[in-house]
Amino acid sequence: MQEFSQSFGTAQVFYPEAGDERCTAALLLDVDPIRLVRSRGASSPDFSLGQYVNDRPYAASSLLASAMAEVFRTARAGRCAARPELPEQAIPLEISLPALPCRHGGVELAHRLFEPLGWQVEAAAVPLDEGFPEWGNSRYVRLTLRGEVRLADALNHLYVLLPVLDDAKHYWVASDEVDKLIRAGEGWLAAHPDRGLITRRYLNRRTALTRAALARLAEVGDDLEDALEPPVEEETAEATPDGEAAEGSGGEPTGESDRPTPLNVLRREAVLAALDDVGARTVIDLGCGSGQLVNALLANKTITKIAGVDVSAHALTLAARKLKLDRMSDARRARLDLFQGSLTYGDSRFAGYDAAVLMEVVEHLDPPRLPALERVVFGGAKPGHVIVTTPNAEYNVRYETLTGMRHPDHRFEWTRAEFRHWAAAVAARYGYQVDYRPVGEDDPELGPPTQMAIFTAGGGDV
Questions:
Q1: Taking CA 29 as the corner, what is the angle to CA 25 and CA 31, rounded to the nearest 5 degrees?
Q2: Angle in degrees, 0-180, between the axes of helices 151-166 and 106-114, rounded to the nearest 10
Q3: Contacts from 120-124 at CB under 8 Å and sequence distance 24+?
Q4: Which residue among 18, 288, 394, 429 is least crowded, i.e. fewest CB within 10 A of its CB?
Q5: How much of the chain exceeds pLDDT 90, in percent?
Q6: How far apart, in whole angstroms, are the C-alpha atoms of residue 125 and residue 387?
């Protein structure tokens, strides 16, 4: 047994079983309520945590998440000095949490949060008293997760989602919590369908921190601008008969909403409309990320061949999971090809398509690498049409909370004049004609939030 002192008690790790086929590591957190009283005062965001009688010693809350982060620090970081190759391997895991608080969602919310991450979820509500079934269920859930996952990913899933399900933290949430969330959520949170709900709850609904976190989580093909919209809090939802707030599938209250269509949806719709206009039947998505556009292309049966390419193997894994590749019908699977590749190195697999799409991709390249991308796409692959979207830097002043560029990985953001200058030069150099379209509301002074160029082979000076 190993023992680790915490500010609120003691964490113990022991191994009930350890054999050739199976090993169980158990983390037992012994919370001292008196130490909680001494370490937390009325300034605590949840003053009830500082009382002698509460559920903290008995439930998997943010206290357990904090202890886990300390006890399993190197495992959570994906490091093993003795066997450095092991942390990168997905292994069959089973995680059991006998008493997990699930406020405002219960069993359904546990499924919603863990299943998109590849877990098989077993969740059962814990009754208030088994001897009195008429009393109904408590807000606690008995949760078991099974899946083949990297240990580091599994621990980070728990580190983030335990306090999210509990919807409370035992300490004051400051700006450094954004950094903790970004680190723990690397590789999975940005693509999670409930990332808005997760981010708001993890950060105790502090609007400024939530916006900052969502901005940093924005990925290629995702929508930072929508993340900067004021969040709708769960507490405004209509109450259900049991007194809990009702939540829709997106983590927001059910009912009508006046919020505008997110820009990432408008962008995807604009690309699909452009592909339809040029009559493309075979399409390659260069820089497909988590597969949002690929999924939309699969829904269009007139498109007979689809490829998704990304330099990140992890992004392709997320795409395969989101597309349910393992359960896809044979006919649908025959139309799709997902593969890893770099857009700055020639690749024969890029060729042979009616159209290629670079949706929010070029701004992620260092400017000196752009000529290489141009040679690979326009000079090597030579599709009949190339559709490029990129942010309009002039529009950034419309985002009050935005400082700098829209994403920390952007190497540049073009004005409308800069984008047209680049597109015209590429078109002339490789024998294309180019047309421009706005994406999103076209501000008369600043232009649209996203700008699009549609290249068509057959024009310019070769």
A1: 175
A2: 150
A3: 120/145, 120/146, 120/147, 121/145, 122/146
A4: 18
A5: 44
A6: 50
Cβ-contact 84, 136 below 8 angstroms: no
Of 152, 96, 155, give the one whose Cα is nearest residue 120: 96
C-alpha to C-alpha distance for 41 and 94, rounded to whole angstroms:
37
- Give the DSSP H or E segment for 37: helix 33-39
The encoded tokens of residue 71 equal 């006890």
What is the maximum span of the chain, computed from C-alpha positions, in angstroms? 84
Structure tokens at 24: 């169980």
CA distance 238 to 107: 19
Asked if residue 306 lies in contact with residue 295, where contact means CB atoms within 8 angstroms, the answer is: no
Whether the Cβ atoms of residue 14 and residue 28 lie closer than 8 Å to each other:
yes
Q: Using H for helix, E for strand and C for coil, what is the string for 336-398?
A: EEEEECCCCCCCHHHCCCCEEEEECCHHHCCHHHHHHHHHHHHHHHCCCEEEEEEECHHHHHH
- The position carrying tokens 């379209």 is 437
pLDDT (0 to 100) of residue 38:
61
Find out if CATH 3.40.50.150 is the number for domain 263-457.
yes
* Residue 121 banded pLDDT, cuts 50, 70, 90: very high
Q: 390 by DSSP, 3-state: which? A: strand
Residues 6+ apart with CB under 8 A from 38: none
448 and 392 in contact (C-beta within 8 Å)?
yes
Task: Kindly report, residue by residue over 388-404, the tens digit of the pLDDT.
Answer: 999 999 998 987 767 77
Compute the distance between CA of residue 420 and CA of residue 434 in angstroms, rounded to an integer.
9
Beta bridge partners of 338: 308
| Structure tokens, 232 | 């709708």
Whole-model pTM over 0.90: no
Q: Is 235 helix (H, G, I), strand (E, B) or coil?
A: helix
Each domain of the chain, given as residue ranges in start order, spans 2-172, 263-457
Q: Look up residue 74 and give its two tokens.
A: 């190197």
Query: Whole-angstrom Cα distance, residue 375 to residue 163?
Result: 48
Query: 282-286 and 120-127: which strand pairing?
Result: unpaired
Q: What 3-state class would DSSP assign to 380?
A: helix
Residues 6+ apart with CB under 8 A from 203: 173, 177, 178, 181, 209, 210, 213
Q: CATH says 2-172 is which class?
A: alpha beta
Contacts of 111 (CB under 8 A, 6+ apart): 121, 123
The Cα–Cα gap between 352 and 282 comes to: 8
From residue 161, give the alpha-carbon distance in Å to each of 54, 156, 199, 317: 21, 8, 10, 21
Reported as a single tens digit per residue, the pLDDT across 275-295 is 999 999 999 999 998 888 999
